[in-house]
Structure formats: structure tokens, C-alpha cells
Amino acid sequence: RGQAAHALLEGLNAEQRAAVTLPAEHALILAGAGSGKTRVLTTRIAWLLQTGQVSPGGVLAVTFTNKAAREMQARLAAMLPLNARGMWMGTFHGLANRLLRTHWKAAGLPQSFQVLDVQDQLAAIKRLCKQFNVDEERWPARQLQWFINGCKEEGLRPPDVPVKDADSRRKVELYELYEQQCQREGVADFGELMLRSYELLRDHADLRGHYRQRFAHILIDEFQDTNRLQYAWIKMLAGLPQAGAHPGEPSPERTGGTIMAVGDDDQSIYAFRGARVGNMADFVREFGVRHQIKLEQNYRSHGHILHAANLLISHNQRRLGKNLRTALGAGEPVRVLQAPSDFAEAEWVVDEIRHLVREGGLPRQQIAVLYRSNAQSRAIESQLFNAGVPYRVYGGLRFFERAEIKHALAWLRLLLNPADDTSFLRVVNFPPRGIGARTLEQLQDAARAAHAPLHQAVPALTGRARANLAAFTGLIATLRQQAQGQTLDQVVELVVEGSGLADHYRAEKDGQERLENLQELASAAQAFAQQEGFGRDAVALPPAAPQMDAGMEAGLPAEMDAQAAPASEPAAGEPPLAAFLTHAALEAGDNQAQAGQDAVQLMTVHASKGLEFEAVFITGLEEGIFPHDNAQASPDGLEEERRLMYVAITRARQRLYLSHAQVRMLHGQTRYNVRSRFLDEMPDEALKWLTPKNPGRSLAEDETFGSAGRRFGLNAGPNAGLNAGLGERAWRPMPDAARAAALPSATANTREGAPIRAGMQVFHNKFGEGAVLEIQGTADDAKARIEFKRHGVKLLALAVAQLTPL
Ligand code: ATP
Ligand code: MG
């Protein structure tokens, strides 16, 4: 037994070993990324078990994600012959849920209570607001949701919430009504799981005593991102007398197990959700922590990568301060690419991925593409999909599976096929138009009786129900009329606006991201039309709704109809809108089947915490995107963005690629972004620019400019890549853009090389024909304001716009 236990320590460094073998006392391990914190935590559990200090039932381990819990379980199973399943190992929410399932009665919940996810919760709040005639303008449901969750995270029930004025009194009232509704319906939201289980222990001395005795060892990963309630929950389990509960006197109650918390202040990235880095200091103080261990050896990343991370994070002022070294050698430099567009960026990423897989022999699942916000994934997903590279999107739905996108697609489907009842039901009351469940029941009954699709059964109803439904079907008819003769992306925009979806999300305090995704859908449609060669073709909708006459005889349930058509191939000859809807269905559905397959991993930086990959791409390194616009206002916000970047960089083991695009179609808008300041906060010697770092300089100048010029020279030639090693291949479009940038006038990058002047007629790949209104700026900064016939006025950078004079 002793031998087996000592085998666990093999390969650990002295500090790690010290941490694993600490006596049963509270401890904090504060250490940087990749220093083995999670490994120490896992090994500690194995050590405690192996040396007989605890049985599996005596361990409570908290991880940040379910995935991390599964991984920890797998690692433990590999280390030990015991059944690791008996252990309480999971996320805070998962563990809270387990407590409540076990003690549902004491917790005052029905045995089969249901958990509400964030979307369900919002829907529940909306329903409540409607029932109590809450003025949506004044108390938007989103805001109430945020308020309620915030209260719960602070451990506050309605009577505990401080009331300042009439407004906050109303909010507290609604909080209380919401609680009653949840209780009545037997549901619990995420915050409720935590708070309810906390109260369960607080209010039941017997249970509290039981668990305090039971969990001799409590281990918490990613401690820097715990919020107030989570820390209070831990304290309840570990038996620290509540502050103020017994002032001055020691608690007569037995204290609980010992806590080992591991964390990294530099990786605190959930402040916006209530995480408190201060929990670390509180923990040390309140528990009188005597063991604080630092780990400084990084085992994950090669030198250049770590060097880049260290220097970047040193720009933050608020740090506890620590450094990391690696013994892995410098490794490959960090590759940096400036792409002319987001499309080109995605192309490069996918190209590079294929190369890494083919020549580098990397399994796809060892490659991650990271981005700051979900909307950015679309361009990359689309390229991966086209290239037939299996991929998997984590943390957040795939683009076409998001609720707002599904709503918009449902509206689009109804334009093509009013008999698509699934889509009908999805949006008949979304955005809300006063059509209730009762009306829909009547409608469904009538449709069933007539064997007709829902929209045909509308005349069978009476009164207000009929009027409301007729308004809906009328709107669809109007939209389809308006859609005639428009291009695909115009139709998407038309529907997003005309259906009221855009206004609906505009009115929501937190509808911004959904609104952006809807705009992104128009970008997706445009890109799709481009790719499929539809160009600016008008969508062809059947002149009148064919089902109006044919529906009855066809006798097919609408859903079958809707599904039978698209089949698996995006058939040639499908008109643009139908083809696009097929594409959306395929892209959403296909990858699900590939979930178990060796696939490239796509995720936001937030979702990548704690993970590691052989190769990592961080895309969209542009001001306003990463660091995000929202964060720029405050120094705290910027520091959190920088920590986020630090997390992203330190996911990489061998290879790190950073990219930014000069032009980006995001949220339906063309944006010209400056490269992220983070790129300039990393050490030059660790980076390798695949495109010139400062393309503003002329070629000659660049050449005399030392390393930047050499870098450029090395990669600019058309064949540079053939001789270069993995990842050193030149990026095709670059020489063009670079050449253009070096030219002194606004003649840059026209196809024919002719100068672009105001008054000229030009053709653009995406936007088609237009008239140049004016030229702004000079040389490589020159931009043209162009009025496109079909797309209105755009401001395009001449260096990248690829205009052809007509
Ligand atoms: P993060 O802050 O990103 O969560 P971490 O500090 O939790 O990182 P781990 O994930 O535990 O770090 O470890 C990083 C990598 O280093 C893992 O692959 C782990 O197996 C490896 N590692 C840790 N310690 C050692 C060691 N002593 N010898 C060899 N490899 C190690
Ligand atoms: Mg970790």
C-alpha cells in the first residue's frame, strides 16, 4: 500500500509533492496556468485514498465544469483500483442538485423537481410578468432575471433584499411571485439549486452535522472564480461558524473537513457573473490557512508560448504576482497572422488545421479554435464544414441551433411553406401577439378535424382568437410578397425586421447578443449565396402559397412535408432560400452525429478554462472584439479581458496561432478593426509574424527595419511555404495585400491597377456594382465611400476591397 502510494508521487516536483502529502489541514495552492494545480488536486485525492486517510465517500471535490469532473474521475480511475463513482465530484450546481435530490423533502421540493436552464427561466419570468400585467418597458423580464439571480447569488430571499424605493419594492414583489410560481410548478433554476441546498444545511442541524462528519476532505478547483454563495456553501459544509452567529464564542458544533483550494488569480474571468477573487484572501483569513503553496514550474507550454503569456499578464496592475518557467524548451514561435478579412482568416485557420493533421499528425481533438464571443464561430464553422473537417462546438449552441436563429429560420420556412406547422407553432406567438395556449388548442382541434395545416384552420375560429391568428398569417403573406425579387440576405433582413423579432430583442435589456446573432444570420445568408454562386440572384418564392389549394388533397402532415423535401444533399437547382434552409439544417444536425468523432474543438475562451491542446488558434484579435468593446470603459474590465487572453494563450502546449482580420463581417456589419493591443503586449522575440507586422511601411523600409522585414521576406514569396516547416507556409493572399499596402496612392489593390476616384463606377465581389462617392485618407489608409446599388453606402478600405473599375 505504501509503495503504491509512493508511486503516485513519482514524477511530481518537490512543491507538488509537498502539496499532495500535506497533513489534513486547510491549504491554498495559488499557482499559474499549467503548473499542475488540477493534477495536484487529483493526485491528492488518490493519495488520501491510497494511504487510507479517507474513504471515497469522505471526499467532496468541486470542479468548474461537468467535463472537468468527468476527466478527474477518469484520471482517478486510472490511478486507483477503486470505484471512484462513490465520490461526490462535480460542479457546484451538480453537487447542490445531488444534495437536493437526496433531501428533497427537507428542502421543501417535490421529489421530481425539474431544473430550469437560463432560457427556461426567462420564459417562466415572462409568463409571470404577463400574468401580473407587469409593464415590460419598466421591468423587462431579462432585467428581473438578472436581479433575481443576483439576489440568489448573494444568498438573499425576498424578505432579506434591501428595499430602497418603489421600483425596488416592485422587483422584490416579483421575485417573491416568481418563487411562488416555481414552487407551484416544482421547478428550480440554477441559483435556486445553490441557495436551496445552502439553506438546507443551514436549517437542518442533523443534516449539517452528518455532512460535516462525512466530508473529511473538500477539494476545490478554480477557486478564483467562486462567488459569494458558493464560498458560503463551502463554509457551511466545512463547518466554519457563520460570522456573527455566535459572536465571540467558539462554535460548539463540530467543525467539518479540511479544505484544499487551488486557483490562479490571473485566471479569474467570471467577475461579471459575481465571481470574487477576494474569496481567496477571505479563505486564508477565516480558516487560518497555514499552508500556502506556490507552483512555478509549467508543464504544459513550450517556452515561446509561456513567455508570451507571462509578458502579457505582466501588464495587469492587480495581481498577487507569480511567475512561471518551463523546462520544455523554447519550441515554436507563436505565429501571428493579419488576414484581409474574417473569411480569409477562417480559410487560413482551416488550411493550417488540415496541415497540422496531415503533416503534423496531430489528432483533430488536440486542436482548438478559440474566440471571444460566440457570434465569431460562424465564419470558422462554415469553413470547417465546407472543408469537411469534423468539428465540435463547446459551451453554447452551434450557431444554427440558437433559439433566436431557430425563430428566424422558422419565419423563413413559413415564407416557403405556410403549412410547416412546427415552424408555425414555434413563432405564432413569438414575438408575443396575445395568442394563448387555449387558442392554439382550439386551432389544433380545428385543423385536426379538417385534416388541414394550422394556417388553414384559422377561419374556423371566432372572435379575438381568430383576429390574432389572422394577423399572424396575414403578416406571413405580406412578408412573402415583399420578399419577391429580393436577394437572400435581404430576405433574411426583411424577415428579421418584419416579423418583429429584431424589435423584440432590441427591447430586451440583454437582447443585444441575440440581435447580433440575427444580424449574423444575414451575413451567413450573404456568404452562402456567394459560395453557392447565387450571387445577387433574387430568391424565388412560389407566387402564391401553394398549400392553400393543394394542402387538403396532399393529406400529408406538414412536418413530414417539411422534412421530406430537404433530404441529405443540398440538391442542385434548389432555389436560394430553400437551399439556405437546407444548409442550416444540415450544418446544425450533421455535427451532432460526429460528436464522438475525432473533431476540432471550437469554443469561447471562457469555455476553455482548465483545458489544454497541442495546438491552439486564437482568432479575432482586434480592438473591440478582444478586448471586447464592453470592457474598454474601465481598467477593471480591461484587466479581466487580459486575464481572459492569458487563459487563452496558456491552453496551448506546442503551437499557438494568433490572428486578426482587417475587415470583419460581424453582426451584419462590415467593421474595420485595429489589431488588438494584446498583440503588442507580447514579446517580439516570441512571435513570428506571417504577414508584416507593420504593413504601413514600404517594402524597402521594412527590409531595412530588421526583424520585421526579414520576417516579411521569409514569408512573402509565393513558394516560401514549400521549404518552410510546419506552420511556416506563406499565406496566399498576403503578398497581394502587402504589395498593395506598400503602394503610395489609393490605386491600391484595384484588380486592374487603375486608380479609384470619386465618381467612378466599380464592381465589388460581395456588394456588386456601385458608384464611388468619395475617397478618404491616403496610401494604405485610403477608404472609399461607395454607394452600391443593392447594398447601400459602404466604406471600404481600398487596400483590401478588391474593386474593379467598370
Ligand atoms: P490551469 O491553470 O490551466 O487549470 P493547471 O495548473 O491545473 O492548469 P494541470 O492541468 O494540472 O495544470 O497540468 C498541466 C499539464 O501539465 C497537464 O498535462 C499535467 O498532466 C502536466 N503536469 C503537471 N505536473 C506535471 C509533472 N510534475 N510532470 C509532468 N507533467 C506534469
Ligand atoms: Mg486546472
- 3D shape: globular
Q: Determine the fraction of residues in helical runs and give it as a percent range.
A: 40-55%
Radius of gyration equals: 29 Å
Mean pLDDT: 81
- Spans of at least 5 consecutive residues whose pLDDT stays below 50 are 241-250, 545-572, 588-595, 697-753
Structural class: alpha/beta
CATH class of the largest domain: Alpha Beta
CATH topology of the largest domain: Rossmann fold
Q: Please tell me the CATH architecture of the largest domain by its name.
A: 3-Layer(aba) Sandwich
Number of helices: 34
State the total count of DSSP E strands: 23
Largest sheet: 8 strands, mixed
Q: Domains counted in the coordinates: how many?
A: 5
* Alpha-carbon distance between the two ends: 83 Å
The CATH homologous superfamily of the largest domain is termed P-loop containing nucleotide triphosphate hydrolases
Bound molecules: adenosine-5'-triphosphate, magnesium ion
DSSP strand (E) fraction? 5-15%
Keywords: ATP-binding, DNA-binding, Exonuclease, Helicase, Hydrolase, Isomerase, Nuclease, Nucleotide-binding
Binding site for ATP: 31-38
EC number: 5.6.2.4
Catalytic activity: ATP + H2O = ADP + phosphate + H(+); Couples ATP hydrolysis with the unwinding of duplex DNA by translocating in the 3'-5' direction
